Amino acid sequence: MENKEGLQKILEGNKDWMNFVRNDKTSRFEQLAKGQNPEILWIGCADSRVPANEITGKKPGEVFVHRNIANMCIHSDMSMLSVLDYAVNILKVKHIIVAGHYGCGGVAASLSGKQFGIIDNWLSHIKDVYRLYAKEIDAIDDIEKKADRLVELNVKEQVFNLCTTSIVQNAWKNNQDLAIHGTVIHIGTGELVDLNNTFTSNEALGKVFAFK
Ligand code: CO
C-alpha cells in the first residue's frame, strides 16, 4: 500500500513536469520527439543530490548523462564505454563533464577500511587513486578534508581515464571538437567548480597511453 502511494506521488510529479515543459516554448515535447542533439556528456555520481540537468541549468534534450557510484570512468566498463562511444561518435558532443562532488559517500567509504559488500570491488578503483596520491592524502589530518581532496584527485584520474580510451583519442585524431573537463560540485551551495583539468588532445597522456 505504501509503495502504491509512493508511485502515485511520482506520477503526480510527472504530470507537473509535463505541464512545465509544455509551457516552455524552447523545449517542447514535439521537438524532443524528433530526436536529440546534446552538446554535453555528463558523467556524474549516482548520488541523488547531484542531478545533471538541474545543476547545469539545462533542459531535456541538452545533456547526455551517465551516472554511477563516485563518477568512475573504468577502462573496461562496457556501460560507460557504450555511453561514451554513442556520445562521441553519434551525437558528436563537444564537451564531456566529469563531475565529482564533495561529501561523496563512495569516496568516503573507500577511505574507511571497512567492508560494505559487493561494492567494495567497485570502490577498489577509488583506492587505486588513493594509492597513487597516498603521500598527499595521508598528509591531511582532517578526515573530511582528506575525502574532499580524494574527490578532486579522483575526478582528475577519471578525466585521464577517458582520455586514454580509443574512442576519445580517435576523435581527437580526426580533429573532432571535443574537450574533457574535470569539475566538482559543492553540495551545500550547488556550485559547480572547474578544476582546471581540461584535455583537448592526447599530448599529455605520455608514451604509456597515447596512441601513435
Ligand atoms: Co558520490
CATH architecture of the largest domain: 3-Layer(aba) Sandwich
Helix share, percent:
40-55%
Using the coordinates above, name the CATH class of the largest domain.
Answer: Alpha Beta
Task: Sum up the overall morphology in one term.
Answer: globular
Number of helices: 10
Low-confidence stretches: none
Please trace the helix and strand order, writing H or E for each element.
HHEHEHEHHHHHEEH
Major sheet: order of its strands?
A: 2-1-3-4-5
Structural category: alpha/beta
Rg, alpha carbons: 19 Å
Main β-sheet description = 5 strands, mixed
Summed up, the domain count is 2
Describe the model.
The chain is of the alpha/beta class. It is globular. The protein has a five-stranded mixed β-sheet. It has ten helices and five strands, in the order ααβαβαβαααααββα. The protein folds into two domains: 1-35; 36-209, Carbonic anhydrase (Beta-carbonic Anhydrase, Chain A, 3-Layer(aba) Sandwich), CATH 3.40.1050.10. β4 and β5 (192-194) form a beta hairpin. The protein binds cobalt (II) ion. Cobalt (II) ion is lined by residues 45, 47, 70, 101, 104-106.
